[in-house]
Structures are given as C-alpha cells and as structure tokens.
Amino acid sequence: MSETFAFDETDRKIVEQLRLNGRATNQQIAQSLNLIASTVSARIRRMEEASLLRVVAVSDFAVHGYNVLIHLAVEVNGRPALEVAEELATFPEVFAAHLVTGRYEISLLLTLRDMDELSPLVTNQLSQVRGVWAMTPAIGLDIIKYGLDTAPISSRRLA
Amino acid sequence: MNRPDLDELDHQLIGILAQDARVSNRKIASDLGVNEGTVRGRIKRLQEERLIAFTALTGLKLEKATNIGFIAVQADMSRAREIARDIAHMPLVKAVMITLGPFNIMATCLYDDLDTLHRLASGRILTMEGVHHVETSLAVRTVKFSNRVVRITELPGDTVE
C-alpha cells in the first residue's frame, strides 16, 4: 500500500458518484464532474490499486436466505477473549464477531435460515468452545438499517 | 422476510458483481455464456427488487470516523419502531436492529473520538422520548465481519446502464 497516496477532492467526488451508482460508466461520471473519462478511469484504478476503494454489489440478507438474525452477548472466562472470538468466528452461522468493552467480552451476530438451527448451533457447537462462560441472546425482530460501507478493505469477504 | 426466487444464474451474477461492480455487461455475458440482454435484464430485476445495490466501499484510511461502537437501547417497546427509525437517521449510525432480549434496539455506529460517541449515545439517543436506558460498548477488535451483505432499504439514484 502506498504511503504517499494523496487523496484529493477529485477522488472524493468520484467516490461520491460511485456510492450513488457503482455501475455508472466512466463517461457518465466524467460528465457530471466536468472531467474526461480517462481521468475518471485512471483515478478509480489508482484508488483500487492502493486498496482504498472497491466498487461492488452488496446483497440483501434475503439473497443468502438469512431469515433469522440473533445477537449473542458472550461472556468469557478462563481463556483470552480474542482466542475465543477467533474460534467462534470459524462457524459459518457467525456473521460478525467483535471484541468489545463492557459487561460482556464478545458481540456475535448470527445469521440463520431457520429458527430450528439455533438449538443445535448453541448447545452442540458455540457452547462447546472453551472459554465460553455465558451467552445472552437478543432475537432480531426487524432490521431497520444494516450496512457499513467502511471497513478495512482486507477483511472483506462475502459471507 | 420474503424469500426471493433466485436461480443459479442470479447467484452467479451476484457473485461476479460482489467482487467488482464495474465489469461490463458484455464481459459478464461472455463469461457466463448468456447474451448481454439477459445480463442487463437480470441486474435490473435484482436492483428493482432491492436484492442487490451497487456501491463504493472505502478503506478506513479515507474516513474520519473509524471506530465501531455499539449502542444498546432499552425503550418503550410500543414505540420501538419509530425510535429505531429516528436513530437510523442519525449521522454515523450504520446499523439498527429491533430486538427481543435485554435491549429493544441495538445500533452500530462509527465514531472518531469518544466525545462524538458520547454525544450520540447520551446526548441524542438517551434524551429521546420513550428511551429509558442506553448502554454503550466499544469494539476493540473486529474478528469477523462482512460489508457485502446488507439490508437494502433504498436505492439512492441507482440506474442501470
């Protein structure tokens, strides 16, 4: 990654256009910003190569059949929380895992196709992970909003 | 949630576009062995049904607010939906879910310094009518996360080529 990358106002405007429509052509972006298409294409390539930008399709939970979302607050005992979190993260049903400050150590978001998957997942798998002391669930009733468009580029993997 | 009717071709298309949304319809068509009109039509339908959206993901280096905070809210359950919607409209709030559990609403936000987070959690959310209690925790490490799977609620200005 380039240490000297200078991200200027033109780059920022191009990113703004791409956020609105990632499939706008270079020509369309160029026209709306009073640039020429080759500048737009070079700027996009430069940002992508510096791992500062990815233009992608994001898909709704429904595409993946994730009909049930559960938040699990995990309390850890007798083992470093990071190790526990890394082991929990290996389960495909674990959509997100963060180490957090507060009354519990690990915040997990589970995505399930069906509520029936919850019991075997929790009793046979998650609770068997060494160091898991207690789990407090919150059942997702409705997602009002979900989308973080910023993250370390390298951690992006389609679940 | 609705279960969308998607076939193998739709999933292949989504897989390609999830890697790079700037690949042309012509290239996708030739890679998948279908014609360009089919690709255009499929993409249009997926967008219209809010199953996919095209966006730009930027690295944390480009942003000012780079820390993740979780705000758990205990609120009047009969008003949870309207409160959750109001929270979702606040700047820096990236995710809001209504839950059944110790808290009614769980929000995820990005913040640049603790003062920003404090102003959001205690200044704005805790003072809302119907909100009883707010608990904030800071993400100290992201172990697993995907920003390719989202809830698509609006399509701001999306157009198909």
Structure, described:
- The complex is a heterodimer of chains A (159) and B (161).
- Chain A has a four-stranded antiparallel β-sheet with strand order 3-4-2-5, covered by helices on one side.
- Chain A is built from five helices and five strands; from the N terminus they run αααββαββαβ.
- In chain A, α2 crosses α3.
- Chain A folds into two domains: 41 residues, Arc Repressor Mutant, subunit A, CATH 1.10.10; 79 residues, 2-Layer Sandwich (Alpha-Beta Plaits).
- Chain A is α+β, with helices and mostly antiparallel strands.
- A four-stranded antiparallel β-sheet of chain B has the order 3-4-2-5, covered by helices on one side.
- Chain B is α+β, with helices and mostly antiparallel strands.
- Helices cover 34% and strands 29% of the residues of chain B.
- The C terminus of chain B is likely disordered.
- Chain B has five helices and six strands; from the N terminus they run αααββαββαββ.
- Chain B has two domains: 41 residues, Orthogonal Bundle (Arc Repressor Mutant, subunit A), CATH 1.10.10; 79 residues, Lrp/AsnC effector binding domain/regulation of amino acid metabolism (RAM) domain (Alpha-Beta Plaits, 2-Layer Sandwich), CATH 3.30.70.
- In chain B, α2 packs across α3.
- Chain B is elongated, with a radius of gyration of 19 Å.
- The chains are: A alpha+beta (159), B alpha+beta (161).
- Chains A and B meet through α1, β1, β2, α4 and β3 of A and α1, β1, α4, β3 and β4 of B.
- β1 of chain A pairs antiparallel with β1 of chain B, so a sheet runs across the interface.
Summarize the structure.
Chain A has 159 residues and is α+β, with helices and mostly antiparallel strands. Helix content of chain A is 31%, strand content 29%. Chain A has helices at residues 9-20, 26-33, 37-49, 81-88, 118-125; strands at residues 53-60, 68-76, 94-100, 106-112, 132-146.
